[in-house]
Every structure is written in structure tokens, then in C-alpha cells.
Design a protein that fits this description.
heterotrimer, A mainly alpha (325), B mainly alpha (329), C alpha+beta (551), A: 325 residues, mainly alpha, B: 329 residues, 3-stranded antiparallel β-sheet, 12 helices, elongated
Chain lengths: 325, 329, 551
């Protein structure tokens, strides 16, 4: 069994690497969508002549596309070299390193909230399938899905921060955070994290509720559950032990599926709440047409999804031996 | 609510939205980009009504009170009394200086009528959503058909590219592309459509693959009909309904995406109103004029819900086994 | 001169304040002296002042890369200048007070300047600040390898020599009014550290200067978390031992103005500059914040690209100006609290030509002039056309200024009324500067922070079309001659006359449509005492500000 897990992990890793290369390749060709094509990067008048030459050298922009492609891929994959930001004049890799933790934190916390509420409400809906509670929950989750994230974010911000002064109005830390004790610092971070993560989670929680409900309902209709009930097991035990275990696989699948959605939402939430993450960096770089950073953030958002999917697959395999076959 | 009434409600809402979009010039009392009085008409709350006098040079004056005198009109505007001579007034106002303007949902910082902007914004938001979804439908079905009908290698390659594209969070991809090619309305429709076909192609491919194994398709093929004809006559018509359901649901998604793009300042260019950009316009004045951002957000939510209700209803109708509940998205 | 998305910040004294200083709607209008009287109790030192900013700084070295206004305002806290420029330019050219230089005297021909430097100024690592630093800074400023954007201000300086540690001799090429101004441009940099990196490497490694930073100003850089915050702490080696009063300045980077205002109201920020003036009308203010307006020393304009066929004729540009309701812009965007601009020399300066009548808002006359030039709506699409070409152009502005973006939207609508189609686009400041320096635009709306030398060379002179700031490519030989004349030795009356004539020509030719002279609105927490933001510096004399202890 252990061996099969390892070989499964190995196969999934291989598949993820392939995807990784595809994502990078797509990014590389993305810049060729532009009318000026590869010279776009070096035609920006903000770029000095020296820098332009070094860029040309660096990426081999006077060489055939295939050679450029190989050079670019080698630089990015082997040396994590994404070039230098035109706006910030710093290596793009440094900029990314500053921003990724904030995004992972925000998206991670939102994911946890999304799962806890989604599971809880989804189970509630499934157990009361067909009742008014069920309908209400379904309506509520549809509403959450349909409200634009930037709008709920703005409304929450103006209510809880500007009018009621309960929560800070954006950013990640208070100014004195560095001087606080560990516990106080954590609390400070939580206060800043609360609104953005709730807003981000709310957008996807609706989908989780619906998904949980439907997976559970499907499982509850199966024979072995009827058997378990017939044996006189309590409803709680039936749901938590028997049904949920079998509904877990699709739920972990949902994790992988909702990651791109989560990161997209995160971009908007980061902009609304001035959260210093990857999404805000992407947005700022688009506004200032900072092409190296645009490419890097786009590719990296894809890579984050691949990593998340890989983790989800591995979890799933751990939960359900059949997946490994 | 049971499924048929859900669908009916959805259809009703979408129908009224389409009517709103088409009839915008009638339903909306004012032009969506007209700044009738930039100062006295700024950030007026919902349900405000004011006297409106048009000047000969095209500008407007909003007044709390109007008194007609021999030389012209005296108006109370911004707490001051101003005299407007007759010759400065447009003929329409000269005849009837007591005309009023009613702002159902208030005005924004330029004195533009929020209700009119939302009504005209429906045109942009709906047409972008629908057109982009249609592009995705055509592209996705085409790629799905090619993948299903060609050999393993092409199928594999296409599906890996689809996987790769699906790995990009949409907003990141959209931002990068608009940064590269600009944000004209037509480009936005194309970009949204061209980044949304991937899951359609998966769905279509699965449909075509299962259809290929259906007896009537095999029978048609064995009679020696040309593969293209078999595809067009026997496979395409059966594959369309499920893909259409998916498209209906996708419209809501695309409307949300377009709104997000507009909010981020990369949507349709000003002064064309789009629901997302109206929210953005109001976001600077959230404390003093909440209504500007508030109502378009509602419009977006209602539209997305309506398309989802229709999509869910259609799905249940096509596939009664799923009627216990809609699938997760 | 620097086009400004933000105020450029320089030093000055409070003489300007009496006219430029209000509290806004809802508060009584106060003058500077009232606000001084309102200061409660005796000043106390210590505490942390938190200031909001929309952008991060671009670096700590003024010479690379080109500094924006916000970066400059931080650098002015970290580094000293040779002299202290006073904003007393209402009646005559500005005068200078001591800073690093204690005293100075001119040779008879007014070409040689001898300065005596103070001997108690130190870098924060304890090394004394000497004449050598000044000489080396001048070498860096004029180095072709660095190509400092303000380098032209040093054109008139032939040499800068250190006679000993505190004596400096400056040789000028010719006598004119802006000699001291030219000399004083730019802060003094630490030779003993920064000369270790050859100029050729400066542009490539901006982080090096952060790692090797010593300062001479009232504050030192304690930490810089990029895109988050910049923390300055009092410099114990600052030459005035009593100052600064406030222990720590924190600049928080909050990109959205809305978030800045929210944080100001909730007490997270103490000082937010450039609040949209519409917010002043909001009744939701808390009692803990005071709003102050002050003149920005800036004029806003539309620059027409005269090399574009649409804008080649002065007649057309005049017609465009007449079709833009500038008063409506001021009434709506500034609630009446800005001034109509008529010329590149601010109405508050000594050389402003008061005889100029602003072009009237007269869309009919405008349309009449356009049709005289052959423009008419021949195809009935509500847009004027000539030879089948519609009158349509793109108007750019910078995305960080909400007032300017709003102004472009209003102008778009005003010009639509007479049948001109305007496409508006806002861009990041970097991208915008790139386009306009390349002359790759139709028209743009921006503001100049008018420099106090009043020299119009870099903006309107034909020689400035390439490489300087005459972005619109405007050229008028007579104007060139007059501008050149201002850079020679003229007496006060002649100089005034020439400057008046320059303004009259620009007013007639309208290479720019002048819009408004702006005010700024600063929101200041009431625990901040002694704050007097003014035209030259929003954080004017911040070393003397102080904070009320928390109650």
C-alpha cells in the first residue's frame, strides 16, 4: 500500500511538471499576442539603452523564436530568473518573494473558512433536503455566488471600517506590529485578515454548500447507507462516519477546482483591501504596463494552482485507495 | 421553489433585463453620460426631484425653486439666487421653465443619472456576457469536436493545452491580455470569449465521445455516409443541448468577470456605462454617496441569479435524474 | 520642473500662508496665525506620526532614478540642501536662507560666490558633512553617466571648489536671476560612502544605496517594507539638537484613496494629503480630524500636441479652450475652491500678468471658429468632420489623480456638446511620461508644479522639444527670443515686462489650455500640532510639528 502511494505521488508529480511546462509555454506565447511582439519588452522608452542591450543579450531577442523560448524557459525554470521590473528596478523574483506569502495566507485562510462553513451548511442542507432550510440555504448560496466580490468588499469596508470603526481599513499589519509581542501581533494580523478572508471565502462558500449537499445526497441514497440505517445506527453516526467518508473524494476534488477561482477572487480582494499580495502586484503592474512583472505574476498564479491541485490529489489518494489505481 | 417556477422567474427577470436594455432610451429619463449640472446635480440622493432649465449653450441648471420674471427666470441654486436671462435659455426651457428632473436612484459625482446609467449599462453587461458566452460556445464545441474525432495524439495535446489554460486564474489571464492588447469593447468581448471556452470544450468532447458509441451514430456511419455529414446530422444536434445549458450558466460568470474587469479599470472605456465601472465611479465617494456603488452591484447580482435559475431549470428539464438539486459550480 | 502626480515638496516659510490657508466647509475659515494660537499647551517631543501615501518611494538616491514628488518629500527629511529657499515670491523673486551654508557673499561681477558652511553638520555615521560632499554632489549631478533629469539647472555653473572643510567657491558662467536657485537644486549626498560605487553602476543597483545609507537631515530611515511602509526615526546627530520634535514618522502605503480616508477617520492615519475635495463636503467626518486646504503652487492644463494636424492652428486651440467650461470644472471638482489659471506663471507670484483676460466659455463662438476652418457635421453622426475625417482625439491623464480623471470625463462631455469626440484614458505615471516624452499623444491633462525661477525654457522653448519638457512640440521664434532674454541679466522692471509679454504670447497661442491653479486638501488628526502644509511642502517644517499625548 505504501508503495502504491509513492508511485501514485510520482505519477502525479510528473503530470504536474508537464502542466507546469505547458503553463510557462502559454505565458511565453502570451506576450507574442501583442502587436509589437517580442520587442515590446525592449521598446518601452522608460528602459535605458544599457538595460535594453542587457535585456537583448539576456533573452537573446535577436535570435530565432525557438532559441528565445529555450533561453527563457532555462532562465525561469533553472534560475528562477524572471528579469528585472521596469517600474521598481528590482529583480522580479524579489518582488514575487515579497508578495507570495501574503496571498498564500489570505487564500489559505479563506479556503479553510470556505470549507468549514461550506461543509457545515452543506450537511445541514442535505439532512433537511427538501425542507425550507434547504431551500433557504440554496438560495443563500446562489446569492453569495452572484454578488460581485469587489462590491461586497467595498460595502463591508465602508460599513465595518469607515462607519463602525470595528476593523482596520485595509493593509496587513498595524504600524506598530513589529514591536508587539507574538500574541498581540497575531491578533493584529487576524483583525486585518478578518474582512478580506471572509469576503473571499463567501464568494466560494456558496459553491461548497451546494457541492457538499449534492455529494452527500447522492451517497445517502446508496444501499450501504440504507443498511447502516437499518442496523439502527444514529443519524449522526450515519452522516459523519459512513456518508461523509464516501463524499470526501468529490470534496477534495472541489478543492482543486476552486483554486483558480479563489486566486482570481483574491486579486480583487487584494485590490479592494490594499492587501500586499500577488494579485495587487499583478494589477499594479498591468496599470503601469510593467511587462516582466505581468508575465511573472500570470505564470505564477498558474503555478500556484498546479501546486494546490497536486496537494489535493495527494490528499485524495490518502483518503481513498481506489484513486491510486 | 420548485424548478419550473424557478425557471419561469429566471426567464421573467432576464426578459425584463433585455427589455430594459433595448428600451433604455425610453425607460431611462436621461442620457447616461449627460452631466446636466455638474455642480448642483452632484451626488444627489435617490428620489430627488429638481427644476431643470436648459441653457442655450447646451448646459443645464438644476434649481430648488424657479420664479419667472419678465427678463428671464430667477432660480434658487446651491443656496443662492441666480438670474438666467431669457436669451440664455434653450427654446424648450423658455416655453416651459417649470420642467423637473426626477432622479430615481440619485446622481453620481458628475451629476449623471444613476438609474439611466444602470439602464444603459444593462446593454453593455448583457451583450458582453451573451456574446462572449457564444464565442466560448462556438470555440469550445469546435475544439471539443476536433479532440473527440481526431487521433489520440491530437486529442491528448489539445486536452493538455486546455488543462494548462484552466490552471490560470481567469482574472490574472484577462489582466495580462488587456495589458497587451488594450480595452476596446469589441476586444473585451473577444478576450472574455477566448478565455472561457476551455471547460466547454471538455464538456463537448465528452458528449461527442459518448455519442460516437451510440447505436444510431454507428448505424449511420456503417451506411457509408461521409463522416462530416454523420457529425453534422447525427452528433451535433444531440450535443448542443447540454452545451447550451452550460452556456446559460456561463453568461452569469462572464457578467461577473466583465464587472470585475471594469471595476479594476480595464473594462469598457469611459464614458460608456458598465455596471462594474459604475461601482468603481462611486467607490471614491462611498462615504458621501453610497447609492452610486450600491445599486449597480444589485443589478449584477440579480442578473447572475436569473441566468443561473434558467440554466438550472434547463438542466433539470433535459436530465430529470438530476432534479434533486443543481450541481455545484 | 517636474510634472506632478503628487505635490513636489520643497522648503519655505509661512509668508504665503496668510492667503493660502483655510479650514474647509463646516469649520470656520482659519488663518495661519489663528491656528498657531490654537496650539494647546507647550510643545512636547516624542510620539509617532502616521502619514498615508498612495505610492511607494522609488529609492533613496535623488539622482537615480528620476525622483517623483513623494520620494522627494521623503528625501528632504533625510538630506540637507545647501540653502533654504523661501517662498516669498509674491512681490519679487524668491530669497534664500541658510541651511548647510551659514553665509555667502558675491564677487563684484556677481559670477563668483564664496560660501561658509556650518561646522556642526554630521552624517549619521558621525562623519562631518564638509565642502567636499558639496563638490562631489555637483560632480554627480552633472555626470553624463547619471544623466540626472534636473542636470540642466547646473548649466550655468562653471566650477565648484572646496577651499577647506567649511569654505566653498562657486564660479558661474553668466550673471542672472536664478544663480542661487540653480546652485541650490538637489540635496547634498554623502561622498565618503557613495563615491565607493562608480557612477556607471548606479543605475543598475538601486538597493545598494539603501544598504549604504547615511543621512544629514532631521530624520533617518529606520525601515522600508516595500509597498507597505517607510519608517523614519529622529536623527540624533541632526545639527539642531532640539529638533525634530516627533520621534518617528511612519509613511503607510495605501494605494486606494478611499482606504486612506477611511483609515484617517478611524484614527489609523494622522495625515492624508490630496483628499478629494468632495470628501470635505461629506458630513461623516469625525471630530478627531481637521481638514485644511492650501494652494498647491501648481497649475493644471491640457497640452495639445501641435504636431498633430488637429491642433496645428492657434485658432483651433483657442476654439477648444472656449468650448471647455473651466469654471464648471472648478465649481464641480473643487467646489469653487480653486482658481482659474491663465498662464504658466502662477497668480500668486510677482511676475503674473494680471492684464490677461481668461478665454470665455463660449461654445457658440467656438463652433463658429471651427466651421470657419471647414469643420461641420456633414454625415449627421453628431461629430464634426472635415475631408471625411472626424474631429476625434485621445486625452490622456495620470491614473493616480482622481480629480484629473474626473476632469477628463467632464471635458469629454463638454466637447461632445459641440461635436468633438474625446477618448479618455488614464495611465500610470511612468507610462504616461514615456508617451509624452516621445511626443506620442494627441493631448494630455496634467499639472506642473511651477518652479520658482519662473524660467519657461524647458516647457515652451523650441530647443526643449527634444530631450526636455516641450512635449507638445510648440514653437514660436518670438517667444524663444523672449525666454532667452529672461536668462540674461535684466533689472526688475525689464524682467517683469518680458515675463508679462511671454505670458501674453502663450495666452494667445494656447499651446496649453490652462485649467486651474489647484488647492490641496490635507486631513490632519487633531493630535497633530503646528502642522502648516503649504504650497512648497505639505510636510512643511515637519521637524517642528509635535503631537498631543494620548488622553
Amino acid at each position: 500500500m505504501y508503495g502504491s502511494m509513492a508511485s501514485f505521488a510520482f505519477r502525479r508529480l510528473g503530470a504536474s511538471l508537464l502542466l507546469f511546462l505547458i503553463v510557462l509555454t502559454l505565458t511565453f506565447f502570451l506576450i507574442r499576442l501583442a502587436p509589437g511582439d517580442p520587442t515590446l519588452l525592449i521598446e518601452d522608452p522608460r528602459v535605458s539603452a544599457d538595460y535594453r542591450e542587457s535585456l537583448k543579450d539576456h533573452w537573446g531577442l535577436d535570435k530565432p523564436v525557438f532559441v528565445q523560448y529555450v533561453n527563457w524557459m532555462t532562465a525561469v525554470v533553472l534560475h528562477a530568473d524572471w528579469g528585472v521590473s521596469i517600474e521598481h528596478r528590482r529583480p522580479v523574483a524579489d518582488l514575487l518573494a515579497d508578495r507570495i506569502p501574503a496571498t498564500v495566507l489570505l487564500a489559505g485562510v479563506a479556503l479553510i473558512i470556505q470549507y468549514i462553513t461550506g461543509l457545515g451548511l452543506g450537511i445541514a442542507a442535505a439532512r433537511r433536503a427538501g425542507t425550507r432550510t434547504d431551500h433557504l440555504l440554496r438560495a443563500g448560496s446562489l446569492l453569495l455566488y452572484a454578488l460581485p466580490v469587489f462590491w461586497t468588499g467595498l460595502m463591508a469596508l465602508s460599513l465595518f471600517s469607515y462607519r463602525l470603526h470595528w476593523l482596520p481599513g485595509g493593509l496587513m499589519h498595524s504600524i506598530d506590529a513589529a514591536e508587539l509581542g507574538l500574541a498581540a501581533r497575531l491578533l493584529d494580523l487576524l483583525r486585518h485578515l478578518l474582512l478580506p478572508s471572509l469576503i473571499l471565502a463567501a464568494a466560494s462558500a456558496g459553491a461548497t454548500v451546494r457541492f457538499t449537499r449534492n455529494s452527500l445526497l447522492e451517497v445517502l441514497g446508496r444501499d450501504y447507507i440504507r443498511t447502516a440505517r437499518a442496523k439502527g445506527l444514529t443519524e449522526k453516526r450515519v452522516i459523519w462516519v459512513h456518508a461523509l467518508r464516501n463524499a470526501a473524494t468529490p470534496l477534495v476534488q472541489l478543492l482543486g477546482l476552486s483554486l483558480p477561482f479563489l486566486l482570481s477572487g483574491s486579486l480583487i480582494v487584494e485590490v479592494v483591501f490594499s492587501w500586499p499580495g500577488l494579485g495587487r502586484l499583478a494589477w499594479e503592474s498591468v496599470l503601469s504596463r510593467d511587462y516582466p512583472v505581468i508575465l511573472a505574476t500570470t505564470a505564477l498564479s498558474g503555478v500556484l494552482v498546479i501546486v494546490g491541485n497536486l496537494l489535493a490529489d495527494l490528499c485524495q489518494a490518502g483518503l481513498d485507495p481506489r484513486v491510486r489505481e | 421553489m420548485n424548478p419550473p417556477s424557478q425557471t419561469r422567474l429566471g426567464l421573467l427577470v432576464v426578459g425584463s433585463l433585455v427589455a430594459l436594455a433595448i428600451l433604455a432610451p425610453i425607460v431611462a429619463p436621461n442620457s447616461p453620460s449627460e452631466q446636466f449640472d455638474e455642480s448642483a446635480g452632484k451626488n444627489l440622493p435617490p428620489l430627488t426631484s429638481k427644476f431643470a432649465i436648459r441653457l442655450d449653450d447646451g448646459r443645464g441648471r438644476l434649481a430648488d425653486e424657479v420664479e419667472v420674471t419678465t427678463e428671464g427666470v430667477e432660480i434658487l441654486r446651491l443656496g443662492r439666487i441666480e438670474l438666467i436671462p431669457l436669451e440664455q435659455m434653450a427654446p424648450m426651457s423658455r416655453e416651459n421653465p417649470n420642467q423637473r428632473r426626477f432622479y430615481l436612484l440619485g446622481t453620481d459625482k458628475f451629476g449623471r443619472d444613476v438609474w439611466s446609467r444602470i439602464a444603459y449599462g444593462a446593454r453593455i453587461s448583457l451583450s458582453i456576457g451573451v456574446l462572449a458566452a457564444l464565442i466560448a460556445l462556438v470555440l469550445g464545441t469546435t475544439v471539443g469536436a476536433i479532440a473527440a474525432l481526431s487521433n489520440r495524439w491530437i486529442d491528448g495535446l489539445l486536452m493538455r493545452v486546455v488543462d494548462g489554460l484552466l490552471m490560470f486564474p481567469r482574472i490574472f489571464l484577462l489582466l495580462a491580455i488587456t495589458a497587451l492588447i488594450g480595452n476596446k469593447t469589441i476586444l473585451i468581448i473577444l478576450v472574455l470569449g477566448c478565455t472561457s471556452w476551455m471547460s466547454v470544450s471538455r464538456l463537448a468532447r465528452a458528449e461527442f465521445l459518448s455519442l460516437q458509441r451510440q447505436e444510431y451514430v454507428e448505424a449511420a456511419r456503417s451506411t457509408g455516409q461521409r463522416p462530416v455529414l454523420v457529425f453534422l446530422r447525427h452528433m451535433l444536434p444531440s450535443a448542443i443541448p447540454p452545451v447550451l445549458v452550460d452556456t446559460t450558466l456561463r453568461i452569469g460568470d462572464l457578467i461577473l468577470l466583465e464587472a470585475a474587469l471594469s471595476y479594476l479599470g480595464l473594462g469598457v472605456p469611459a464614458p460608456t456605462p458598465s455596471w462594474g465601472s459604475i461601482v468603481f465611479d462611486g467607490s471614491m465617494e462611498l462615504v458621501s454617496a453610497w447609492w452610486v456603488s450600491f445599486f449597480p452591484g444589485f443589478a449584477i447580482a440579480i442578473t447572475v441569479i436569473a441566468f443561473n435559475l434558467i440554466g438550472d431549470g434547463l438542466r433539470d428539464w433535459l436530465d430529470p435524474q438530476m432534479a434533486t438539486g443543481s450541481t455545484a459550480r | 520642473m517636474v510634472p506632478t502626480p503628487n505635490p513636489i515638496v520643497r522648503l519655505g516659510t509661512p509668508t504665503l500662508l496668510a492667503i493660502a490657508f483655510f479650514a474647509i466647509i463646516g469649520c470656520d475659515e482659519k488663518t495661519a496665525s489663528d491656528s498657531q494660537a490654537a496650539v494647546a499647551g507647550s510643545p512636547k517631543s516624542g510620539g509617532t506620526l502616521v502619514i498615508g501615501s498612495g505610492d511607494d518611494i522609488s529609492g533613496v538616491n535623488q539622482l537615480v532614478p528620476a525622483t517623483d514628488a513623494f520620494t522627494q518629500s521623503i528625501l528632504d527629511r533625510l538630506f540637507l540642501s545647501l540653502l533654504d529657499e523661501r517662498p516669498d515670491l509674491a512681490d519679487h523673486p524668491p530669497t534664500f536662507g541658510p541651511q548647510i551654508a551659514k553665509s555667502w557673499d558675491w564677487s563684484k561681477d556677481h559670477l563668483t560666490l564664496n560660501l561658509t558652511l556650518r561646522d556642526d553638520a554630521f552624517w549619521s555615521d558621525g562623519v562631518p558633512l564638509t565642502a567636499e560632499d558639496v563638490v562631489w554632489t555637483w560632480e554627480a549631478q552633472t555626470s553624463p553617466e547619471l544623466a540626472w533629469i534636473q542636470a540642466s539647472s547646473k548649466d550655468n555653473i562653471a566650477s565648484v571648489e572646496a577651499l577647506d572643510a567649511t569654505s566653498l567657491r562657486v564660479q558661474f558662467k553668466e550673471k542672472n536671476d536664478s544663480q542661487l536657485w540653480d546652485l541650490n537644486e538637489g540635496v547634498i549626498l554623502p561622498k565618503h560612502l557613495w563615491s565607493q560605487l562608480p557612477f556607471s553602476k548606479w543605475l543598475l543597483d538601486l538597493d545598494w544605496f539603501v544598504e549604504n545609507l547615511v543621512v544629514s537631515g532631521a530624520y533617518r530611515l529606520e525601515s522600508w517594507e516595500r509597498q507597505q511602509q517607510i519608517v523614519l526615526r529622529r536623527n540624533d546627530l541632526y545639527f539642531d539638537p532640539g529638533l525634530p520634535m516627533i520621534e518617528r514618522l511612519v509613511f503607510r502605503i495605501v494605494p486606494q484613496k478611499l482606504n486612506q480616508i477611511g483609515q484617517l477617520l478611524s484614527g489609523e492615519l494622522d495625515f492624508v494629503n490630496n483628499i478629494p475635495i468632495s470628501e470635505a463636503a461629506s458630513k461623516d467626518r469625525t471630530d478627531s480630524v481637521e481638514l485644511r486646504t492650501y494652494w498647491a503652487g501648481q497649475y493644471n492644463f491640457i497640452c495639445w500636441n501641435v504636431t498633430h494636424p488637429l491642433f496645428a492652428e492657434a485658432e483651433t486651440r483657442q476654439a477648444l479652450t472656449m468650448a471647455i467650461d473651466r469654471k464648471a470644472l472648478i465649481d464641480s471638482l473643487w467646489f469653487g475652491r480653486a482658481k482659474l489659471s491663465t498662464s504658466p506663471i502662477l497668480s500668486s507670484t510677482w511676475a503674473h500678468n494680471r492684464a490677461l483676460e481668461p478665454w470665455p466659455y463660449d461654445p457658440k463662438e467656438s463652433l463658429a471658429r471651427l466651421s470657419a476652418q471647414g469643420w461641420s457635421d456633414s454625415d449627421g453622426d453628431d461629430i464634426l468632420d472635415k475631408n471625411g475625417e472626424p474631429f476625434s482625439f485621445e486625452l490622456l491623464t495620470n491614473s493616480s489623480s482622481s480629480i484629473r480623471i474626473d476632469a477628463t470625463v467632464m471635458i469629454q462631455e463638454q466637447l461632445r456638446r459641440i461635436g468633438i469626440e474625446v477618448k479618455v484614458r488614464s495611465l500610470g505615471f511612468g507610462s504616461l511620461s514615456a508617451l509624452v516624452s516621445d511626443h506620442d499623444f494627441d493631448a494630455f491633462l496634467l499639472g506642473w508644479t511651477a518652479d520658482t525661477s519662473l524660467d519657461q525654457t524647458s516647457i515652451f522653448h523650441t530647443d526643449s522639444i527634444d530631450g526636455a519638457s516641450n512635449f507638445g512640440g510648440y514653437s514660436n521664434p518670438e517667444l524663444d527670443r523672449l525666454i532667452d532674454l529672461t536668462n540674461t541679466d535684466l533689472d526688475f522692471d525689464d524682467r517683469t515686462n518680458v515675463l508679462h509679454e511671454i505670458q501674453a504670447i502663450i495666452h494667445h497661442d494656447q499651446p496649453y489650455t490652462f485649467l486651474w491653479e489647484s488647492k490641496r486638501l490635507a486631513g490632519i488628526s487633531k493630535r497633530v500640532q503646528g502642522a502648516t502644509p503649504n504650497a512648497l511642502d505639505a510636510l512643511y517644517k515637519i521637524e517642528t510639528w509635535w503631537l498631543l499625548p494620548d488622553s
